[in-house]
Amino acid sequence: MKKYWLLLTTILLIAPAQVVLAKVTKYPVVEIVTGYGNLYVWLYDDTPKHKENFLKLAREGFYNQTKFHRIIKDFMIQGGDPNSKDEKLKDQWGKGGPGYTIDAEITKTHFHKKGMLAAARLGDNINPERASSGSQFYIVQGTKFNDQSLDYIEKQIRTATNNEDFKFDEATRKAYAEVGGAPQLDMQYTVFGQVISGLEVIDELAVVQTGAQDKPLENVEMKINIIELSAKQIKKKYCFIVPGTEKK
């Protein structure tokens, strides 16, 4: 009996050391800090080139002290130009970048609903491949659209993309009618993320007074941080379910 007791005691002493805690997966959440409040953004896995590039630049501090240099109410707010750090280059704001572009990752899955993060780019006349700016981005505010307006925009997109089969599905139409957005940009710009918290901040930024070339009359500076959180933390803080972590 004494031997069994000694054996049991040994097992109990050793067992805790053998317990291996499961590693918790952390996901990057983009925090865009402004004087009007903060935006929290989820980046999509199916636009990997844009996601990887944005995270790289943000972690390097590339975006810090840049400004939202173009704001159009009921449309979008645009930033990410390193030229905007320098007041002496104000006439060049909107023309800068890191010195490279990113291949387009345009998909019908991601459309320009309010709160979407998308890549700015040069126009089709000099950029027929629709390659994205290496750093400039915009966040959609937009406005609401009825079915008649969406029917007209469908035709415009078919012409612009040479895709006669393009059509908004019912879920997309409902989103544009109830939430709003900028459907005229669909299938022509890469949407690579969405605001998961802070939609009201977009509305605050969108009414900033602007002047020539839609530049704000007051500087709207930003700082971008990357926060690493678990799926559970993201759900609790932002009421957002990380794709692939839904309970079956």
Describe the structure.
- With 248 residues, the chain is an alpha+beta fold.
- The protein has one domain (23-142, 181-238): Beta Barrel (Cyclophilin).
- Helices cover 28% and strands 20% of the residues.
- The protein is built from six helices and ten strands.
- An eight-stranded antiparallel beta sheet has the order 3-4-8-6-9-2-1-10. A two-stranded antiparallel ribbon has the order 5-7.
- The longest helix is centred in the N-terminal third of the chain and has 17 residues, at 2-18.
- The chain is globular, with a radius of gyration of 23 Å.
- The N and C termini lie far apart (48 Å).
- The model is unreliable at 4-12 (pLDDT under 50).
What is the CATH domain class? Answer: Mainly Beta
The CATH architecture classification is Beta Barrel
Rg measurement, Å: 23 Å
Percent of sequence in beta strands: 15-25%
Anisotropy-based shape: globular
Mean pLDDT: 93
Major sheet description: 8 strands, antiparallel
Assembly classification: single chain
At the fourth level of CATH, the homologous superfamily is: Cyclophilin-like
Q: How many strands?
A: 10
* Distance between the first and last residues' Cα: 48 Å
Number of helices: 6
Low-pLDDT stretches: 4-12
Q: How many discrete domains?
A: 1
Compact description:
The protein has 248 residues and is α+β, with helices and mostly antiparallel strands.
